[in-house]
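Give me the fold.
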Amino acid sequence: MHIGNIITDGQRDLWIDVGDFAYGVPEWDLGMMYYSAYFISAQRADSIFHLDNATLRAHWDAFAPVYYGTDSREVLDAEVKKLQPYIAAKLAFVISTNRCFLNSIYISFYCCPIKI
């Protein structure tokens, strides 16, 4: 999922290039999309997506209600809670495969430092 995969004509938003959803559990991508929208540093957001944090959040906030079929904050929050194990497992995988930087008691993943 990448914000560049949104096409709009001003009245409709079309989500393209989501074919990978058909090949696995979508929660992996959804979890990283949510995590990127709310937890990566401004520097990482710019480096990876060429966007600021507010735009990434707006992307998630526009996508989630369409994907989950609801505007209910309670339902959307419950769906995000379901993503947490996927986010945690993905972070653990990235850490265990040394695709991150270890810096004393901070772990820098594809995002901002997380205090452990």
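The helical segments are 26-39, 42-49, 53-68, 73-96.
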